[in-house]
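Q: What does the assembled structure look like for these inputs?
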Amino acid sequence: MTKNEYIKKLEEALAACDSELRDEILSGYEEHFKNGLLEGKTEEEICTELGDVDEFISEIPAEYNVLPANTTTIPSDQSDHDYEHEFPNNYSTDGINSVIIESKPSSVSSADITITKSNDHTIGIDGPSYEESGFNCLVTFENNACYIKITNDKPIVTSILEKLFKHYEATFHISIPDTIKNVKASSACGDMDIYNCNVDNFDITLGCGDFDINNCKAATAVFTSSNGDGDINNCEFTNIKFISSNGDINVQNLRSDIANFITSNGDIDFENIISDDLHARSSNGDVTISGNITKITAASSNGDVDVTNFIDCVSGDIKSSMGDVEYTCENNNGFVASCKTSMGDVDVTYNGQNIKRGADRLYHAGDECTKLNMSTSMGDICING
Amino acid sequence: MNTQLKKGALELCVLALLSKGDKYGYELTEVISKEMSTAPGTLYLILKRLKDDEYVDTYLVESDSGPARKYYKMTEKGFSSYREQKEEWLQFVKAVERIIV
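A:
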């Protein structure tokens, strides 16, 4: 890799990052190149010394990523320990329509967060005491929003030493009533469990941790995780976007008009998804989908892609580079399919009959209701009608 | 080595170096990377955290070559945290030594 390629890659990877940190890192790396070249090293050698960009980026805590413009910043802390530690506590929601959670534990501590539906009209917070855990939880109200800020101010060495000898994990329980329209949370380290919540917007970012989302409803839901798995069960999101860098995504019983799921290094597994427009993409994992889907795009670079659809779909794009691709239509009024593979076999059947490729290089079956586009470089293609 | 332990140790090393005088980012990474294998990026993240926690302050100094350099300077808060962490670390290392040697 040349210097320019390396710096360009770093710049792109840092695009969403806090600008001060980005400038600092970039000028530091530039200096490394400058001095390294003076010492007679090659650009290639310096790149190796500086290490893999992706690996470094995965180390950056989520809180250094710039939040979308519509967030207001959390009011700054008062004095060192002037926090509210008394739990459980309930807060009135008069005039409040958003809950914004920011969890920023030190780099060796982690806080799990559970969000549930509140039984009354208040926001409830429960968690460990400061004395017990070293975690602070600051609650403030501003611009129709309730801000909940979780931090851990113990010096990093203290936290490590404590962690070596006793395993303490903090969990904060936050309950919100249905009157809350927006829930936004960013957590640097820790799992996030969300149960029985009905809101307009979810916007949740985890630096490191798993998602577990059950019985929830929202018009828009955005979930982002750098390192962690995602489980979604019995949910209804009109528009959902789920992005994970390193983790599996498991979905059961989801209804969503427009659904986007992306993971770099994990499997995607969907069971009973009802969607008008579904995109699912994994770079290194398998993608397995079953449900009623009108329009589907499913792709993997290195894994298999397997789709079972219970309705006729308008269009299906099923792609892999290294793996097998398979499409099964359960309620089938036929299809017209393009099947492209460099190294593998193509097997197309309709009602138990083998379909041969037509003169137009497409496979035609029945009323041709479904338009399929199947491709893989190294794997086999299979369509079961 | 356990990455978290390493991170904690690195933070302590950065504080130790800064306690001896102000330094800019590249200088710090040079000194530390001579002793242990660390990507410079990790050090910038530690510096950022130390600044957020008000353990260090920064100021710019014009450089003859290239853009101005950002120097890091330890604050009072940084010094007192450093003394505490150093003490804790030394005790920890002694305890480990007693057991493993």
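The first strand of chain A starts at residue 89 and ends at 92.
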